[in-house]
UniProtKB/TrEMBL annotation, chain A:
SUPFAM superfamilies: WD40 repeat-like. InterPro entries: CIAO1/Cia1, WD40/YVTN_repeat-like_dom_sf, WD40_PAC1, WD40_repeat_CS, WD40_repeat_dom_sf, WD40_rpt. CDD domains: WD40. GO terms for cellular component: cytosolic [4Fe-4S] assembly targeting complex. This is Probable cytosolic iron-sulfur protein assembly protein Ciao1. WD repeats lie at residues 17-48, 65-106, 109-150, 154-185, 200-233, 310-349.
From TrEMBL, chain B:
Residues 40-115 form the MIP18 family-like domain. It comes from Thrips palmi. One of its GO terms (cellular component) is cytosolic [4Fe-4S] assembly targeting complex. GO terms for biological process: chromosome segregation; protein maturation. InterPro entries: FSCA_dom_sf, MIP18, MIP18-like. Belongs to the MIP18 family. SUPFAM superfamilies: Fe-S cluster assembly (FSCA) domain-like (SSF117916). Coiled coil: none annotated. It comes from the Eukaryota. Pfam families: FeS_assembly_P. The gene is LOC117640204. Keywords: Chromosome partition. This is MIP18 family protein galla-2.
Length: 349, 163
């Protein structure tokens, strides 16, 4: 059986990265794709790199310890690639940089009452967002070097906020919550107040993660209800005739991927190069979905095209991340303590 | 959780303890694959102490063998438990104790779900959702006060009731 170009698309295991003790919660690629960071319950951030380009063998380059007193839930690179933000159950967010030659924590963002669940940088690098079990979303402005000012505390969610992400090229912030909803926020230019501009309701349980497509016209969300939903924005005056009260864009659920995951879906990643959607599920499987070529853009169909059948994780998969420049390269991490690198191979048919 | 001076359920109904399980020669034979069964899982949780009474969850009928469903081949264990009273404020803590006990004693391949018996509690849905959220469970288990309380409840789980 030839493995490189089979008739059907496949997800080929490239490498298994071990080193963390216990559950690995999150992974994040450096914007240039030459580094991968990971974090988990062992309170250590590991930075992985290769000797000979991304196709080489990935090894630990640096381990950042002593930044947090409790589990590190998420770690994210800034768009410029010079900063690393880590969100922790210890209620703080740490900002790391390499100005001294090696990675050091040069700012600690405090204010949340309890566990920080997620952190995200806006495209400009001038804004950041964090969210917490305290039900709030905070927007931070990067004031000066190593200075971060809280620009807004958003109380729109009624429960634990699981994830925050920024629109790929707009200062629009999206958050997902234990209250089953997704909310979007932006700054009102009239009074510089951050306000909730949309609430996306359809999931019937916790929304664990969200991901925008490349242009930011669609959002994928995944939930404890076992489904993935695709939302599409309709601007005022749209041809489809979708009403936009108050002249604000409306997000509408245009597709639900149901019956594909047998348990909770913890993460979703939308590849900005290929348009493929990857999911991380509590049924231990990584799945890849592709939009059908002939599908109606207002009622798109997404087909399961590949999954990690053999060689997969042995426990819940917590996070999936597409490589920013190498199409089809995917990283996943799991409760089994391992990180796996995969290559999505197109079929020949 | 506010500490209570008064017991919520002053006079709980007591139930009989199960007889010790007989270990068969087949189970002792290492060459035969012996899948986990409901009785083995029940044995892991029936000795857990109730947070407010010096009694086990079995004696209070909070856990029952018939409410443990095991599918060894599919790596799933579903435990349903019944708080002694429908407004029991200890319901989440008891569920957490069952979860932690199974987390610590079973192989990691198992997907454990712990839920309240349908209709047995006023906040059934909210408690079930919280117990199913592994992120919140993980955060709770990093709380040193809470873990001490849980450990106290679990301390009885392995003591032979005959001693």
């Amino acid at each position: 059986m030839s493995s490189e170009n089979p008739a059907m698309p496949t997800l080929k295991l490239v490498q298994v990265l071990t080193g963390h003790r216990g559950r690995v919660w999150n992974i994040s690629w450096h914007p240039e794709g030459n580094l991968l960071t990971s974090c988990g319950e062992d309170k250590i951030i590991r930075i992985w790199g290769t000797e000979g380009g991304v196709e080489g063998k990935w090894v630990v380059k640096t381990s950042l310890t002593d930044g947090h007193e409790r589990t590190i839930r998420e770690v994210t690179w800034s768009p410029c690639g010079n900063y690393l933000a880590s969100a922790s159950f210890d209620a703080t967010t740490a900002i790391w940089d390499k100005k001294s030659g090696q990675f050091e924590c040069n700012a600690t963002l405090e204010g949340h009452e309890n566990e920080v669940k997620s952190v995200s940088w806006a495209k400009s690098g001038q804004l950041m967002a964090t969210c917490s079990r305290d039900k709030t979303v905070w927007v931070w402005e990067v004031a000066e070097e190593d200075e971060y000012e809280c620009a807004a505390v958003l109380n729109a969610h009624t429960q634990d906020v699981k994830k925050v992400i920024w629109h790929p090229n707009d200062e629009l912030l999206a958050s997902a919550s234990y209250d089953n909803t997704i909310k979007m926020f932006r700054e009102d230019p009239a009074d510089q107040e951050w306000t909730c501009v949309a609430t996306l309701s359809s999931h019937t349980s916790t929304v664990w993660s969200i991901a925008f497509n490349k242009t930011g016209t669609r959002l994928a969300s995944c939930s404890d209800d076992g489904t993935v939903k695709i939302w599409q924005v309709y601007l005022p005056g749209n041809q489809e005739g979708i009403a936009t009260p108050d002249g604000t864009p409306v997000w509408k659920c245009v597709s639900t991927i149901a019956g594909m995951h047998s348990r909770c879906v913890y993460d979703v990643a939308w590849c900005h190069q290929t348009g493929l959607i990857a999911t991380a599920s509590a049924d231990d499987v990584v799945r890849i979905f592709q939009e059908s070529l002939d599908s109606d853009p207002n009622q798109p169909n997404f087909d399961l095209v590949a999954s990690s059948s053999t060689n997969g994780h042995k426990q819940d998969v917590n996070c999936v991340a597409w490589h920013p420049t190498v199409a089809g390269l995917l990283a996943s991490c799991s409760d089994d303590g391992e990180i796996r690198l995969w290559k999505f191979l197109e079929g020949t048919s | 959780m506010t500490p209570k001076t008064d017991l919520e359920n002053i006079n709980p109904k007591l139930y009989k303890r199960t007889e010790e399980r007989e270990v068969t020669t087949k189970e002792l034979d290492p060459t035969i694959y012996d899948p986990f069964d409901a009785r083995e899982i029940f044995d892991l949780i029936r000795g857990i102490n109730d947070p407010e009474h010096p009694l086990s969850l079995e004696e209070l009928n909070v856990v029952e063998e018939r409410l443990v469903v095991v599918d060894d081949a599919r790596n799933t264990i579903d435990v349903t438990y019944t708080p002694t009273i429908p407004h029991c404020s200890m319901a989440t803590l008891i569920g957490l104790c069952i979860r932690v006990q199974l987390l610590r004693t079973l192989p990691s391949r198992f997907k454990v779900s712990v839920k309240i018996s349908p209709g047995a509690h006023v906040s059934e849905e909210a408690v079930n959702k919280q117990l199913a959220d592994k992120e919140r469970v993980a955060a709770a288990l990093e709380n040193s006060h809470l873990i001490r309380v849980i450990n106290e409840c679990l301390a009885g789980a392995f003591t032979d009731p005959k001693l």
